Amino acid sequence: AMEPAEVSRLHALAYLQCALGFLGSLLLRQAASSYGRYASPGAAFGVPARAAWALQELPSLAVPLWVCARTAAERLRRAPNRILLAMFLLHYAQRSLIFPFLIRGGKPMPLYTCVLAFTFCVYNGYLQSRYLSQYAVYADDWVTDPRFLVGFCLWLIGMLINIHSDHILRNLRKPGETGYKIPRGGLFEYVTAANYFGEVVEWCGYGLASWSIQGGAFALFTFCILLTRAQQHHRWYLEKFEDYPKFRKIIIPFLF
Ligand SMILES: NC(=O)c1ccc[n+]([C@@H]2O[C@H](COP(=O)([O-])OP(=O)(O)OC[C@H]3O[C@@H](n4cnc5c(N)ncnc54)[C@H](OP(=O)(O)O)[C@@H]3O)[C@@H](O)[C@H]2O)c1
């Protein structure tokens, strides 16, 4: 069983993550979002896009595996804990092992952004996996609870929207191209940042299914960071393309 000191540490880490999300969307606005189309071309210490994405997201996969391998991971004998951890790992297997190699003409990632993302993935990988493997206690029938079922479906739908939308963005470029076009099709008909919308839905689903401060904190953090960047993208498209569809919202279809 876990020591009370570690239980309070996992709670403190979750609250800190919420604070970092708000802080990130205010103070770190520049640093957190200065990659891709906003990276200054001459910037020193750019990490090639593929290497950057693979390396910076890998801790969200490696840290949980390390956490579970080196301890008894008592709670992983229970189905809810195992499914929730698998949801987290599946996303990051996609993000760090597949997504980087599909990128077309990605701009080098500023080293600073890459280090921030890496640090976040260590932090969050530890928080989610340690919580689920050592601490979280669910009733035996949690997997049939409406919160789990709805959360799981949102997670799955969100992930599919995210992957599909990133696929649409990628295919705007022919091999070798690096420019930007107006995205068409899928949820891009409704929002500028369809890929971010998917990612937010995905982690909100995970937060709901895990019914924990730790899961909720990650969803909130994601929302704060991606909302900021979605607003930036939206302004950028409106400036760059005169014929940008006026009907499109920023990140949430029909709403915002
Ligand atoms: N959980 C989190 O907190 C978090 C934080 C950040 C990102 N993410 C996820 O990571 C993934 C990538 O994020 P991102 O910020 O790099 O997304 P992004 O800015 O939308 O760019 C995604 C990719 O598509 C290209 N692209 C975007 N718009 C384009 C256009 N109009 N025409 C042609 N190509 C275009 C980009 O090229 P360029 O690189 O050349 O611009 C980039 O390779 C997303 O799935 C996002 O949800 C998650």
TrEMBL record:
EC number(s) from the headed UniProt entry: 1.3.1.22
Annotated catalysed reactions: a 3-oxo-5alpha-steroid + NADP(+) = a 3-oxo-Delta(4)-steroid + NADPH + H(+); 5alpha-pregnane-3,20-dione + NADP(+) = progesterone + NADPH + H(+); androst-4-ene-3,17-dione + NADPH + H(+) = 5alpha-androstan-3,17-dione + NADP(+); 17beta-hydroxy-5alpha-androstan-3-one + NADP(+) = testosterone + NADPH + H(+)
Residues annotated as signal peptide: none
Domain of life: Eukaryota
Lipid bilayer topology: Multi-pass membrane protein
Gene Ontology MF terms: 3-oxo-5-alpha-steroid 4-dehydrogenase (NADP+) activity; 3-oxo-5-alpha-steroid 4-dehydrogenase activity
Gene Ontology terms: biological process: androgen biosynthetic process; cell differentiation; male gonad development
Main location: endoplasmic reticulum
Cellular localisation: Endoplasmic reticulum membrane; Microsome membrane
Keyword Oxidoreductase: yes
Transmembrane regions: 12-28, 83-103, 109-127, 148-165, 208-228
3-oxo-5-alpha-steroid 4-dehydrogenase C-terminal domain residues: 108-256
Stated family: Belongs to the steroid 5-alpha reductase family.
Protein name: 3-oxo-5-alpha-steroid 4-dehydrogenase
Organism expressing this protein natively: Canis lupus familiaris
